Structures are given as structure tokens and as C-alpha cells.
Amino acid sequence: MADNDSRSGVVTGPGSTALVGSEFAEVAASVDHAGNGPRLRLEDLRSGRVRFLDALELESIIWLPEGHLRQLLDPSSDRWREDG
Amino acid sequence: MTATVPRAGTDRPDYTRLIQPDRVHGSLYTDPRIFTEELERIWYRTWVYVGHESEVPQPGDYVRKNIGPQDLVLTRDREGQVHLLVNRCAHRANLVCEDESGNSNSFRCPYHGWTYRNTGELLGYPYNKGYGGKGKLDLAMGRVPRVESYRGFVFGSFAADGPSLAEHLGEAAGEIDRLCRLAPEGEIELSAGWLKHRTRANWKLLAENETDGYHPQFVHGSIFSVTGSPIGALYSDRSTAVTRNLGHGHSENDLRPEFRKFGEPMRWFGTTEDRVPEYAAAMRALHGDAADEILVEGAPHVMIFPNLFIAEIQVFVIQPLSAGECVQHSTAVQLKGAPELNRRMVSQSVGSVGPAGMLLADDTEMYERNQRGAEQLRPEWLDIRRGLERERVDERGLTIGTATDETGMRGFWSHYKTLMEDQT
């Protein structure tokens, strides 16, 4: 049954996890309500690593210039680096 | 088959001897050396049909495609531009994409994690100190040097220079136009999914057969009799249909004279207007008085050199793999804005070229028997003279024969010979 959170305007169903996958990566996305406000829960299904993103962080991603996103996609940018 | 005799003074096959106006040598279908030369002079040089823009409708969409044995990825970038990449990592040559299709703006090679934009640009590689840091490598996925579209049909050429796509298509472009004008929105889509038939035959046997009007009454006699189809009669000596050499190796069976004779809208599709009322109404609203002609004349039956065959309601793509093996890719045409007709196109295609279909299975049986026959020693030649003496030039200046003449084959071989003898 849908849970209409009138304070935030977020409409979600309990346990409604969306899967965004390709041959290159698989990520489970759901809205987490454990805190005082909703946040997006992202799980890298290949490593099990989880990251939460709040509304402001998500908005920032939407506004991220294309060039910044490309830098993040460089495997040695953050994840696979000698000093990581 | 007997070994190919090299031309005097060279170690190359003598195509002038092997390709004559009324016959072609059997080794053209069986000699691996000739196949290697075809890859170099045809498949990796001229324009080859690759895919349709409708197969990558959204930014980030990609599909695996091919030019002969070359594994390609057709992509659409964030700006909407279509790219044709060679599916090979610039590091250790691993295949970068594995899935037949997907949506991803970037691709990560599974071998060492090298990551590319869907334009082919290298975005980075893991543990960059081994290369002196970030962005130190001037490498990218391979790109097909020339990519052009016509009415959504995407063609690629591995040659950086050469005739334009418009020059290559020539008169065949009008046949693509004729297909598109059948769509209420003026465009077609290839979105119904692809069937692949691995075929143990040389690719040219297929290309020649596509506009051979001599075989349907024999090879397809059973489907015509079971379905009561009037198509068989189109390919008889009494038929007013013509086989046309469109130039540049392209050819068609122009069935319009027969359809005009009957003057019945949708007869070309084996139905009547009242069975597809929404489609007919949309076309009449769009074209007014001109709709009658469009609905009577129907879709083209055209072989576009070297690998695209538009057979009225289906599209076939021929992919050669070796002298004796190829893959036939087939799908149903979908006319934009015609859901009523599109459903029928899919079911008719399933019936004709599906796994239990009754048309392609018959043709493929002939292709494979033909290949085995061509491997036999005597006689050495395949005959292509049918109708040679009754050919004429039409009002467009194009050579035409009767519905059952081998005019299309002769056009194919004439162009093939030009490409294979090219000294550049």
C-alpha cells in the first residue's frame, strides 16, 4: 500500500526498490525513511557498498556540469587509485 | 570447386575471367582468398547498412551491430548524435560491450576497467600512476570513419574517403522513400526485434536471390498454395512486373505494374482497405487524392548493395562471416503511426521468417544446397543469362527485364566486378 508522506510530498510503497542495471553496473535504489526526512538509498549490488543521498545532494547531482560527471567516471578518480 | 586462377602478372584472382556478362565462376562463392578480398574491397570500403536510428531512440541507448565479421556498437550520445564504434578496448582488445542492447552513457571494459564515453572517448583507467597519471593516453575505442543516415537507415564505411552515401544509394534511395511514405508519420521503425538465421552459404547467393523472380513459383510454391496467396502469379512470364537494375549493385522487383492493374488498395499487403480502416483513414486524411496511388502501389522489394534487403514488410540484413557462412538478420517493418498495420506486419513476419516460418526456411534450404553444389567440380560456372536478350532501358534510363529475368543479378555482378578490380 502506498505511503503518502504529506510533509515531504514523497510517495513511495514499502519495500519499493528500483533496480537500475546494465552490463556495466547494477544499483538498487530506494527511498529510506529511517531518519527525520526521506533520503535516497543507493546500493552497489556488485560490491555491497551503500550510499545515502539527501534531497540537496540529489539536486546538486542534477546540476552537475557534464565535465564533472565525466571526471567522476574515470575509474582512477576515486575508486581504483594507488593511494586509495 | 577448382582453385582460382590468378591474373597474369599478379597474385590476385582474375575477375575479368571469373565474371562474364552471362555467367560467373563457382570459385567466387567458395574461395577463401576471394572472401578476404571482398572484405577489403567491399565490406571494409563501401557503404554498408548497419542499423536504424529507431534502434537507439534515447540518449545512452546502444545496440551491437556488425559489418561482416566486425563487431560494432551503434550508440546515441547525450546530444542525440549517433555514433558507430568498433567493439574493442584500446588497451588489450577485449570486447567492451557484451549485451545485445542497453542504455549506458559510458562503457567499462570488464578486463581492466578502462572506461569510455559512448562516443568512444577514453574517460580513464584504474591505477593511473602506471601511465604517469590521468589523461596521459591518446587512445579511444575505434570508430567507423564515416557514418551517415538516410531516412533513419544508418550506413557505415570503413574508408575515410569515397563516394557519399547519396551517391552510393543513387536510385535505391527512392525505394526507401517509397517505404517511408507508407507510414502516416513518414518514418519507419525497426523496433520489433531481430531474428538471426545462421546460414551455411556464401553471402552473394542471398544477395542475388533477393530479387530473383524466377524462383518463387518453385521454392515458395507450398506457402503460396497453403495460403492462397496471389503473390506467385506476380512472378510468372505473364506478369507485367519488372526486374530493375538500379545501378551501384542495387536491384528491385517492381511489382507496381501488377498492383496498378488491379487498382485495389492494400492488395500488396494481401488484404483489403476495410480490414485496416484506421490505417487507411489516416493515410487518406494525410494524402487526400494521392492516397489511392500509395495504398495501391505498396512497399518496395529492393536489394541495396551489399547487405540491405527491404522485402515489402520485412527488412533483412546479410552478414558474411566466411566464404561459406553468413547470418541473415530479419525484422518486421513498423510504420510510425500505424499500430493497426504494425501488428499484422509482425504476425506476417513470424509466419514467413520466424523459426517456424514458411518462406525463409525454404530460401535458406536453397542457399545451403546451392553452396554445396558450387563446391562441386563440374560444371565450373553459374549461369546468369536469363532475359539478357530481352532487356530494355526504361524511361528513367535504367535497365529492366521481365519479372523472372536475371537482370538484378547481372547488375549486382557488374558493380561487384568494378569494386574487386579497382586498382586504388
Automatic annotation (TrEMBL), chain A:
This is Uncharacterized protein. The lineage of its organism: Bacteria, Bacillati, Actinomycetota, Actinomycetes, Pseudonocardiales. It comes from Prauserella cavernicola.
UniProtKB/TrEMBL annotation, chain B:
InterPro entries: ARHD_Rieske_2Fe_2S, Rieske_2Fe-2S, Rieske_2Fe-2S_sf, Ring_hydroxy_dOase_asu_C_dom, Rng_hydr_dOase-A. The keyword DNA-binding does not apply. Gene3D superfamilies: Naphthalene 1,2-dioxygenase Alpha Subunit, Chain A, domain 1, Rieske [2Fe-2S] iron-sulphur domain. One of its GO terms (molecular function) is iron ion binding. Pfam families: Rieske, Ring_hydroxyl_A. Residues 47-156 form the Rieske domain. Keywords: 2Fe-2S, Dioxygenase, Iron, Iron-sulfur, Metal-binding, NAD, Oxidoreductase. The keyword Iron applies. PANTHER family: 3-PHENYLPROPIONATE_CINNAMIC ACID DIOXYGENASE SUBUNIT ALPHA, CHOLINE MONOOXYGENASE, CHLOROPLASTIC. Belongs to the bacterial ring-hydroxylating dioxygenase alpha subunit family. This is Rieske 2Fe-2S domain-containing protein. The lineage of its organism: Bacteria, Bacillati, Actinomycetota, Actinomycetes, Pseudonocardiales.
